[in-house]
Amino acid sequence: MLTADANARVFLSGEAAPLAEVSEAIGLKQVYRTEYKINGSDAVLEIYGGDLPPGVAANRLESGLRARQLNAAIPGNDDGATGILTTKDELTRMIVSPAGPGKTMIFAVRQRWEDVARFNATTAGGQAPDITLPGVPPYPGGRLVYHMEDQKTKTTIAIYRAAGMPENARQFYAESLPSNGWEPMGGRDGGRSAPVMYRRGALNCTVSAQTDEKTGELTVTLLIRRSSL
Description:
Elements: H1 17-25, E1 28-38, E2 41-50, H2 54-67, E3 71-73, E4 76-77, E5 80-86, E6 90-98, E7 104-112, H3 113-123, E8 143-150, E9 155-162, H4 166-179, E10 183-186, E11 196-200, E12 203-211, E13 218-226
Antiparallel strand pairs: 1-2, 2-7, 3-5, 4-5, 5-6, 6-7, 8-9, 9-13, 10-11, 11-12, 12-13
């Protein structure tokens, strides 16, 4: 299983500093940071939050990073967004999630390219062991390629790869999550790339489904977290 080791230590270059700098410049603050080792590959989870609607935060963050001549893409709207930032040294995956009226929380997972290659080699082909997410079923026919949990913030990220279209994944969770007590919150009319949010008690579940432009493979990302950190 792809699990996280919070005792891991990773020394990433300062080149990813623009993410923190631009986040601060647009009014977001880093509220959490922890280091992991996932299947032998190092990673860092950073969480940013602030008083901006998700669509505005994603747009300003993307614009600020691109102004620094960095390759950043964070498409989305006020229901949320998913995106990436690439530098010569690192890959950063981002999930932009609503955190209350007019508020945003950004989850960023950073890895050096050598760790990305090591991780991809570890997860290439085959089906990773299933994980249990209470009330959230795995995507049918998908293979689990990424799983990270942080007990302190009660945050879980799971990524599946599968055949099919984003609409198939959105429809599957639109049917299965409410039957498990999750209430839809938004994103259902935001287009096929817009994340969809659900709430059950103190937990939020964000479902994002996108097609990989290079491989044509469907990527389904599940982010489960407490309503507030």
